[in-house]
Design a protein that fits this description.
CATH class: Alpha Beta
Oligomer: single chain
Order of helices and strands: EHEEHEHEHEHE
Low-confidence stretches: 168-178
Mean pLDDT: 83
Radius of gyration: 15 Å
Helix content: 25-40%
CATH superfamily: P-loop containing nucleotide triphosphate hydrolases
Shape: globular
CATH topology: Rossmann fold
CATH architecture: 3-Layer(aba) Sandwich
Largest sheet: 7 strands, mixed
Structural class: alpha/beta
Number of strands: 7
Strand order of the largest sheet: 6-5-4-1-3-2-7
Distance between the termini: 14 Å
Strand content: 25-35%
């Protein structure tokens, strides 16, 4: 069973840990506790093939302290997370992408807007997220870890992007992500 390593990056407090914990254990913690770095495992079946996902939960980044060099070596894909209620976290996604492209020469990634449950506080529109993802030539997902909205879709999308890059994506005639099962 192939192992795929996915690194989750973004500003402090955007919900990286919450997204991963919701995906791995269906849990959600209301309290914010800064992360240094944690690693999680989860099995995902996609297009008839089982994958062991290793998910790396990173410490929050900021535009002055983005150092992703240590994550780029054996990483198959990146999830770049921003908070839809925080324009600065959204702006950091482009900086993180530039670093990833510089370090790797190009690797699978997706852009994720989290905290859609806080619609009244939204500063970044869905359209802005889509436009950025289109500019970066990647998939885009909006989610809410708190409400468990589109969490599985985040990891299905990054796995699809990884497999597209590996040339092993099966042509099933089905819509992408339609044939993925979380175990």
């Amino acid at each position: 069973m192939p192992n795929r390593k996915v690194v989750v990056l973004g500003s402090k407090g955007v919900g990286k840990t919450s997204i991963i914990q919701r995906f791995v254990s269906n849990g959600f913690c209301q309290e914010y506790t800064p992360t240094i770095e944690n690693t999680f495992q989860k099995t995902l079946t996609c297009n008839g093939m089982k994958y062991d996902l290793t998910l790396v939960d990173t410490r929050g980044q900021d535009k002055y302290a983005t150092s992703i060099t240590s994550y780029t070596g054996a990483t198959d894909g990146f999830v770049l997370v921003y908070n839809v209620c925080d324009t600065k976290s959204f702006e950091l996604v482009s900086t993180l992408n530039e670093e990833i492209q510089f370090e790797t020469g190009g690797t699978a990634l997706i852009v994720v807007g989290n905290m859609t449950d806080l619609e009244n506080e939204r500063q970044v529109s869905n359209e802005q997220g889509k436009e950025l993802a289109e500019k970066l030539n990647c998939e885009f997902v909006e989610c809410s870890a708190k409400e468990n909205i589109n969490i599985n879709k985040v990891f299905q999308a990054v796995l699809e992007e990884i497999e597209k890059g590996n040339g092993s994506k099966k042509q099933t005639g089905k819509k992408e992500n339609e044939n993925c099962i979380i175990l």
